[in-house]
Specification:
The protein contains eight helices and eight strands; from the N terminus they run ααααααββββββαββα. The chain is of the alpha+beta class. It folds into three domains: 107 residues, no CATH class; 47 residues, Roll (SH3 type barrels), CATH 2.30.30; 86 residues, Alpha-Beta Plaits (2-Layer Sandwich), CATH 3.30.70.100.
Length: 282
């Protein structure tokens, strides 16, 4: 092996061989460290820690950040070793001084990056959201797939993957913490029997609250709140209830389905957009 390295050093140069070895070593070390962390996440110790952690998604986020941070540190060390090899026989102090000057120059254009990282640190420790949470940042709504020191990755309902720099995260709406509110507004025409409408909505609310497929999702029984608004052609009746995070959507869909089915059976009309076209012949 030594003979091969000596022959290669004659052809390519000793520094080139050392740089290649540093790069290969950094890649292998990064792979090994990630493998160790992945194996640790499958261990009994991690599983017990996962059960005790609240919220559980925070542990997933921290694990992901630890892997990315270790990779970044290995890359940084590899870069310094490569510079040390290239500038040899100059001392490491000279290299660091040169790096400091370069850092000042780059720092003028790296303010956004620093802002992203600092904000990422606050996100990690304050824990406003984590991997698996359903959140809204600005105009983007979806599920958090990854959080690093610099970027938050969100997958929206259409499947698009959004990369949001942490420095741009100003206001976050988290829909996955503690509980959600199932809210459904139903319009009933003014010429319909409101009592019949209230009875129907109460009946559906009771059915879903007691349904074995949805009962475990509901924290407080779904109930009819009352008339909350007078629309142009109908009175708006609000139905709501406290449910587990993210379960408001399937419950709302099921409520609408049952409402259409039962309203048809009772001959109760639900308003829908209408358009009248008047043709005038001269």
């Amino acid at each position: 092996m030594q003979a091969i390295l000596q022959k290669a050093s004659l052809v390519f140069g000793e520094k080139t061989i050392r740089i290649l070895l540093i790069i290969i070593g950094a890649i292998l070390l990064s792979f090994v460290m990630r493998f160790i962390i992945n194996q640790f996440t499958k261990s009994k110790i991690y599983q017990e820690l996962f059960k005790k952690t609240r919220p559980k998604r925070r542990l997933l986020t921290l694990t992901s950040i630890i892997k990315n941070t270790i990779t970044a540190l290995i890359l940084l060390i590899a870069v310094f070793l490569i510079f040390d090899t290239i500038l040899e026989p100059k001392s490491l102090t000279t290299i660091l001084a040169s790096a400091g000057i370069i850092g000042v120059i780059l720092g003028l254009g790296a303010q956004t990056l620093i802002k992203d990282i600092i904000n990422g640190i606050f996100i990690i420790f304050e824990n406003p959201y984590g991997i698996g949470d359903s959140i809204k940042i600005g105009d983007v709504t979806g599920k958090v797939e990854n959080v690093t020191l610099r970027v938050t990755t969100i997958r929206d309902i259409e499947g698009s993957l959004h990369f949001i720099p942490n420095g741009e995260v100003k206001t976050v709406s988290n829909r996955s913490r503690q509980w959600s509110r199932m809210i459904l507004d139903v319009g009933v025409p003014y010429n319909e029997d409101l009592k019949k409408a209230f009875d129907l909505l109460n009946e559906i609310s009771k059915e879903i609250s007691e349904d074995k497929n949805y009962k475990s999702y509901i924290i407080t029984p779904i109930r009819v709140l009352g008339i909350t608004e007078f629309g142009e052609s109908s009175a708006i009746i609000r139905v709501w209830g406290k449910v587990k995070p993210g379960k408001n959507f399937p419950i709302s869909r099921e409520f609408r389905k049952r409402l259409i089915e039962k309203a048809g059976q009772l001959d109760l009309k639900i308003p829908y957009p209408k358009k009248a076209i008047i043709l005038k012949q001269e």
